[in-house]
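Weekly puzzle thread! Below is a chain. First person to post its structure in token form gets bragging rights.
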Amino acid sequence: MPRKKHDLLVEAANGCDLAIDGRLSRSWFRQGALPLAPQLLGQTVVRRTSEGLIRCRIVETESYVAPLDKGSHAYGNRRTKRTETMFQDGGKAYVYLIYGMHYCLNVVAAELEQAEAVLIRAVEPLSPTDVAWMRIHRPIRSRKTADISNGPGKLCAALQIDKQFDGADLVMGKELWIERGIDIPYEQIVCATRINIPYAEEYADKLWRFYIAGNPYVSVVDKQAVPLSNPARLLETFQTESGE
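Winning reply:
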């Protein structure tokens, strides 16, 4: 009998599968967007720039699961020039432009042809040097340092991530990749509804956004968010209409 996605989530808590140099492996990225999204919290996005390597901790994510999810670009297995990357193998970057001005970084999160992805909504720079280099690419007047990367468009600007990274390999890439970071206890993770997707109809209410509670870099704090550690809520969150 095939394992359900919420079972994979629990099993994966025993540790991440590593590839070279501390990078997360291809097989780890293939487990599906719903179990992968909370596990990405605490992992490290690495971007090689002309200044040097910038490292940031992932603190907020959102899952998008085709073909049933009406919030997904690949709803109904829609294949276009834009969505084709979502059908690639796990561990690839899916980058798209919104509002004609902001790029968004997603992680392709399933087997080839399954079209599941996780949006990276917010990251936290790991050091003052990382902050300084990110400010070069995204100068801000705000005294609140979190404003540099507390949103998907903001973090892409600060890390110089644009359409050229669509399809980039986050396992073996030289300019952009994801490394093993720190483990975030499930007790510190909360689930909430996704942001700005009213068109998703009944899927707009799914608790498929995950973030580290209390982290200042989280883009939107939801007062109705629920703990991931609640077993009943966990099963409800990862239940899909496919019967998994």
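Puzzle host: Confirmed. Bonus trivia for everyone else. The chain has six helices and nine strands.
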